[in-house]
Amino acid sequence: MKRRHLFLAVEVLSPLVVLGAWWAVSAGSTDPFFPSLAKIIDQFGQTWLFSRFDSDVVPSLARMFAGYAIAAGVGIPLGVALGLARRLHEAVAPLLEFARAIPPPALIPFGIVVLGVGDAMKIFIIVAVCVFPIVLNAIDGVRSVDPELMDAGRAYQVGRRDRLVHVVLPASMPQIFAGLRTALSLALILMVISEMVASTNGIGYFVLQSQRTFAITEMWSGILLLGILGYVLNLAFGLVERRVLRWHRAARGVATN
Amino acid sequence: MLEARSIAKTYGSGPSAVPAIADISFTVGQGEFVCIVGPSGCGKTTLLRCLSGLLPVTGGDVIFDGKRVDKTPDNMAVVFQDYSRSLFPWMTVFANVTFPLRRKRLGKKQTRELAENALHAVGLSDSGDRYPWQLSGGMQQRVAIARALAYEPEVLLMDEPFAALDAQTRADLEDLTLRLRQDFGVTIIFVTHDIDEAVFLADRVVALTQRPTSVLEIVDVDLPSPRDQLATKELPAFIKLRSHVYRLIRRPDAVESISDSVADSVSMAAPIT
Amino acid sequence: MHARRLTYQAMTVLVVVGVLELLTISGVFSAKSFPRITDDVGELASVLRDRVFWQGVGETLRGWALGLGLATLVALPLGLLIGMNQWIRSATTAIIEFLRPIPSVALIPLAVLVLGTGLQSKVFLTAFAAMWPILIGTVYGVRDVDPVVLDTARSFHIRRSDQLRTILLPGALPYVATGFRVASATALILAVTAELVIGMPGLGQQITLAQASNQVPLMYGLIIATGVLGLLINMVIVRAERHVLRWHSSYRKVTT
User: Fold this and answer.
1) CATH number of the domain to which A85 belongs
2) What's the CA gap between A120 and C128, in Å, rounded?
3) Among A146, B273, C12, C40, which lies 20 to 30 A Cα-Cα from B260?
4) Is A6 among the domain residues?
5) Contact A196 C108 (CB under 8 A)
6) Rounded CA separation B121/B150 (Å)
7) pTM score, two decimals?
């Protein structure tokens, strides 16, 4: 028992120690590229709370969530449908593989050509890229539903609609969530890249602009914000996943006992 | 009621074909408790899946109530061996039991009654709101049995349902199964590898051969009812029957007919094809 | 069976390409944004003879390989250390959980600032991003090794370093391999991103140039080329993984 508490203490203390060390080491810094942590935090407060919140944070997040939601709304049904229709999936598989292999940033110029440099392009790019992990994972999830569960459904002659909604979908949820998680980090990355390449507002735009105009502390504050954003999004996703998939974690825990 | 007519099942085709079942024939009458035993790997589960319509046969027929079986018939319910994989983990116990009833469209009240009665019959009245993974193995299998009961089947097929449970839980569930058979009047076809269990539960025991499987012998079990875990298993008749089935399964070449000293009504039937 | 599937796939590809072609010819898609597929492929074919193209490919591959290599060099030993030692794991968990979700693209301006616009920036960014899948994979892999096997080894007084070599590393290999595969794809993405955003030489830069100078069919052709490159890299990695794991998965079956 005591050992476990020790481990927990180390786990909580170590990031604090690292932060403290960063603070201390950078305290009197005159290096133009690495301002002190104190100054960065100060700048963070000035910039993001809340002066640039509306002008940059909101549009960034709005674009990202819009793209992500559309990708999920299109990708999950599409993936489930393909997972169920084996022939169709096999036929389309090489196209999917190829589209997936294109590194997402390579699609940004394509987006610019087709949709210009506005919000539509950014949302489109996020959708186009995030759809893939969602679809592929949904397909995987549907195809790997435990055959014993399907047998139970067949033995009791469960109707097709019931089988889909109450057996296939819940059983594929863990895998679908894996796809949603990948898509979330991709959405964040693409939001930033698209803003760095073609935008007049947004967090990514701000960070790059700050670097170009040598507003170093501002740049750092932006990087910090993106880091916090990534962490918070991941955390929030984890909480939702844990709630929705409560049965899955518990069932697997029992099975391995 | 249920008839296996020269059932054959071969997996694959051509030179790599695997004949699992060569020729199995037997009948099950209404209200009977028939146990199917055989050596390991003899295709007992394959047979059960063919009987329940989950697996198509490659030869012969399964006849249920006079009709050929090509998918699971309406009045048949199945209890699978792996309870942790046949109950739906995202549904509560109650939801699991009522799920097959959705298609029968009986209305909320009646469905609820059926489920509650079934859960009560297996001794799980209080567990309706819990999830399968919160229950022990024995309790999960009871849920599976309740699910089958609520379905109001005429025939219950059970595929080594207690194989994954410890001996004491197994004994409890054996008793439960006998009691349910008496209270609900279902016909039961019970696959097991446990010879003691087969003789203890059955009215008749179908002994199978090695692969490719066929019926070695059908043994009538004329032990007094109700069966008791202690009393019945001490009877000389039980011991003789058990030994006989054991020899059939383990050493089929050394089988001799049971002598008359065991007393009446043990008959030989269904010779090896 | 196999041949039939291939036929379906080939037919589907042809149908899709045909439909796209028709959409452009008929004017439904504006020819400026969506030139005919045949034009795109034609541009690609002609660019394949251009030395500049191949130099670009080389640049992208160079950044990818160096970044991936650096990531492996750092993440593999680090992962082993973290996986094997509970203290180190406790100390680093929170830090990793915070650093990992930082989109590596956020560091682009920093990299440019500190390391300039040369190869070092590209390699740094690629390595930073590719590090995490390998690290996580290695930690998982080490932790997943059956403790019974380790206890057995310890009871026979097998040295820790030998345990590492003969039990932990082979046992962790499948997870490490998966992590490496993800890292490889990530590294390619970052390499192209660096070329795109910073303008470093490589395929990403060529695609941007084509777009900026309105050579749209060329742009599409280059995008297709990048996709093909991604596919090829993936195929090589998967094949290598299968080769390595074929030996080890049977090893695993023996130990299980």
Assistant:
1) 1.10.3720.10
2) 30
3) B273
4) no
5) yes
6) 10
7) 0.82
